[in-house]
Specification:
Layout lengths: L2 H19 L6 H8 L6 H4 L3 H23 L10 H18 L1 H11 L2 H6 L1 H15 L9 H20 L7 H15 L5 H5 L4
Helix pairs in contact: 1-2, 1-4, 1-6, 4-5, 4-8, 5-10, 6-9, 9-10
Length: about 200
Amino acid sequence: MEVQEMRQVFIDSAVRVVARDGMEKTTTKAIASEAKLNEAYIYKCFSGKDDLLSAALHMEDVNFANLLQKTLPIMHMPGLSWKERAYILWKKSWDLILSKPADCIFYIRYYYSASCRAHAYETHLACFQPLIEKASKSFKPGTYMDMLIHQIFSTMLFFASRVMNGELENSEETTQWAFEQIYSFVVPNVRAEVLEEEDK
């Protein structure tokens, strides 16, 4: 097995172990057992568990950033209000997050861990920076974009966690409700001319 292939096997296994057993029980031994590979091979691919989990988060971030990159042109779709366009962007993002429950649970558990803050957070922010810069043109001067994006992200993960633990149904009503919560704090920051504009 090539090193790159082995890296991916360990990343996928780490996602499943964190999702199933939680952060505290996620050890290199548990990840290797899930991968059905010798634990020593982890250290051929990564410097250790923190490096492996950081790589797993980065994989999830890249997948999400790629979806946003492909979907962002919707915000210039003719004949729709800004809110209607934003809802389409939200729904595609939301559907991706909930389509892979193990990945979603892994993300929530790792993202809020001390390990993420210490080993992965800077890379996480850098992954989304080009998209933030592109989106910032639609917002009022002085909008603290990093804080706004963090608020969107945290609200999204909050609702996703409630769906994953069964408190909320994965339904159109939940999708709409979560969107309205996010829209309520995003829209005051959007430039008036952007909100008024409908491309002809």
